[in-house]
């Protein structure tokens, strides 16, 4: 059974993909997006260079906890007393935007708009760069499984090679989709296969299933002028990858998730994105469950048959959510945290003017069982520290901290830094730790900050758009039990069952 309902909150805030406070800079960003010719409109900060002056350092500056309401100085490191910055590794591609992270054994895999870097994190205090791969194609969302690495390309390219250049999506020969690498030799990854998908691959999610790995490809924003991305685009591409023969990977299905077209957006729902696909999908294989953040809609669906995902429930928030961006289950699978990427990742929305409920997380309880399960709104969470109007800041990628008996997340907020927060009481979430830097450029809005912040085997790893890889340690009684949980890999959008 599928139902559609909205959070019944007062209509206090409205927001579009670009907040009024950043219209001037948005015009410049939009010009950059359009000149790059992506087949999906305004991806996360787009094909941009990180903003500001950001010399890297392997030794983080000594941080402190600022006074309430204080904005740190330019590039100044500040953090709560229970967070310890261990090190920072400057990006291998200093002119490229750093994006997502994945983990396997002693290695971390960091995507960026020019390719990816493999780090040896056996010693979290001193990660070592193992290899770097040049393969342009924003946003290079990344995941790993066994000896395979997957990269998403959501910027229109001249071909599927790692030597491609930007090419308008209006040209039929342009390519977007998923690239597959063999990473058996970590020092020399080998590109082995590409799979083109409709409207590219903004993000992707792995769904292991017996001898195969399925890849759910999230993409959006079709256009009649794009030969490979025409409307309607009301579902997701499903790629099947035989583990023993990955070069036979191919699209096997395009399940329609929104037969009614999804949220119509403006003018019906002013300030809300029209649903034309999904931005991100998180699966919980142990429960055969998935949650989709799909522009104007949040969905819960059954993945018992991975080629035929089936929507169970669907929600909208036409009051406070502008763009449903990502999703995270708690360990018991009775809650989902959805994020709203107000401003597209390029806006300064963590300020007093924007308020506490826009550009925030929405916490939903999952009630009922089977096909009668429902998503029930409980509350919003937003970092309580106001950021400068020159700092892009909004809810972004995070993961669970597998603490015993508690629901705790670590989450990236771009220039709002890294936040650790507790939603055990889903109606009263609260921040318990944080790490951030002052503005990249106090005089103007610049793009930077933490893109992804994930907890893996006792440490927090953050891929900062401009600064590179940060490694943090949290020492707090509420998270202490998580240090005993050891994983052999972590793709955050393929949530493990923590034991």
Characterization of the model:
This protein has 499 residues and is mainly beta. Helices cover 3% and strands 38% of the residues. The protein contains one helix and 31 strands. A five-stranded mixed β-sheet has the order 1-19-18-17-16, with no helix packed on it.
Name its key features.
disordered N terminus, mainly beta, 5-stranded antiparallel beta sheet
Short structural description:
By secondary structure, the protein is mainly beta.
On the 0 to 100 scale, the average pLDDT is: 89
pLDDT under 50 segments (min length 5)?
A: 1-46, 52-61
Helix content: under 10%
Q: Kindly estimate the percentage of residues that lie in beta strands according to DSSP.
A: 35-45%
User: What does the main sheet amount to?
Assistant: 5 strands, mixed
Distance between the termini: 31 Å
Widest beta sheet: strand line-up: 1-19-18-17-16
What Rg, in angstroms, do the CA atoms define? Answer: 20 Å
Number of strands: 31
Annotation field: number of helices: 1
| Shape by Cα distribution | globular
> What structural category do the secondary elements indicate?
mainly beta
Write the layout of secondary structure elements.
Elements: E1 4-6, H1 23-36, E2 77-79, E3 83-89, E4 98-104, E5 107-112, E6 115-120, E7 128-134, E8 139-145, E9 148-157, E10 175-182, E11 190-196, E12 203-209, E13 212-218, E14 237-242, E15 250-253, E16 280-284, E17 289-294, E18 297-302, E19 310-316, E20 324-329, E21 335-340, E22 361-367, E23 374-381, E24 398-401, E25 408-412, E26 418-422, E27 430-437, E28 450-456, E29 459-464, E30 468-474, E31 489-490
Parallel strand pairs: 1-19
Antiparallel strand pairs: 2-27, 3-30, 4-5, 4-31, 5-6, 6-7, 8-9, 9-10, 10-11, 12-13, 13-14, 14-15, 16-17, 17-18, 18-19, 20-21, 21-22, 22-23, 24-25, 25-26, 26-27, 28-29, 29-30
């Amino acid at each position: 059974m599928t139902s559609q309902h909205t959070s019944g909150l007062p209509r206090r805030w409205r927001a579009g993909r670009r907040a009024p406070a950043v219209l001037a800079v948005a015009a410049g960003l939009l010009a950059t997006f359009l000149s790059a010719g992506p087949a999906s409109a305004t991806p996360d900060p787009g094909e941009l260079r990180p903003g500001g002056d950001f010399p890297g350092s392997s030794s983080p500056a000594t941080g402190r906890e600022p006074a309430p309401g204080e904005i740190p100085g330019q590039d100044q490191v500040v953090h709560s007393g229970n967070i310890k910055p261990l090190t920072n590794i400057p990006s291998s591609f200093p002119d490229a935007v750093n994006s997502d992270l994945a983990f396997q054994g002693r290695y971390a895999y960091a995507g960026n708009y020019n390719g990816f870097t493999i780090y040896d994190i056996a010693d979290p205090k001193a990660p070592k760069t193992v290899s770097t791969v040049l393969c342009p194609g924003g946003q290079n969302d990344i995941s790993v499984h066994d000896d395979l690495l997957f990269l998403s390309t959501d910027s229109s390219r001249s071909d599927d090679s790692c030597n491609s250049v930007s090419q308008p999506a209006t040209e039929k020969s342009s390519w977007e989709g998923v690239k597959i690498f063999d990473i058996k030799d970590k020092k020399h990854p080998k590109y082995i296969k590409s799979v083109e998908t409709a409207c590219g691959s903004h993000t992707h999610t792995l769904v292991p299933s017996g001898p195969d790995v399925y890849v759910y490809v999230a993409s959006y924003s079709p256009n009649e002028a794009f030969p490979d991305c025409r409307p309607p685009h009301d579902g997701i591409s499903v790629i099947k990858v035989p583990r023993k023969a990955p070069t036979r990977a191919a699209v096997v299905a395009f399940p329609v998730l929104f037969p009614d077209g999804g949220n119509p957006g403006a003018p019906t729902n002013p300030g809300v994105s029209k649903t034309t696909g999904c931005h991100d999908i998180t699966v919980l294989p142990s429960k055969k469950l998935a949650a989709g953040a799909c522009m104007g809609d949040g969905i819960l669906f059954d993945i018992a048959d991975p080629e035929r995902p089936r929507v169970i429930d669907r929600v909208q928030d036409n009051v406070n959510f502008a763009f449903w961006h990502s999703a995270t289950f708690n360990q018991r699978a009775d809650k989902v945290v959805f994020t709203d990427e107000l401003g597209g990742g390029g806006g300064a929305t963590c300020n007093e003017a924007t308020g506490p409920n826009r550009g925030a997380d929405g916490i939903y309880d999952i009630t009922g069982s089977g096909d009668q399960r429902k998503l029930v709104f409980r509350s919003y969470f937003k970092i309580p520290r106001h950021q400068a109007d020159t700092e892009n800041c909004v809810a972004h990628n995070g993961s669970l901290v597998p603490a015993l008996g508690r629901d705790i997340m670590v989450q990236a907020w771009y220039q709002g830094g890294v936040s650790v927060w507790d939603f055990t009481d889903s109606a009263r979430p609260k921040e318990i730790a944080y790490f951030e830097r002052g503005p990249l450029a106090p005089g103007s809005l610049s793009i930077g900050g933490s893109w992804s912040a994930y907890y893996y085997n006792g440490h927090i790893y953050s891929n900062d758009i401009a600064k590179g890889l940060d490694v943090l340690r949290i020492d707090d009684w509420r998270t202490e039990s998580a240090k005993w949980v050891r994983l052999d890999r972590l793709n955050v959008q393929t949530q493990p069952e923590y034991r």
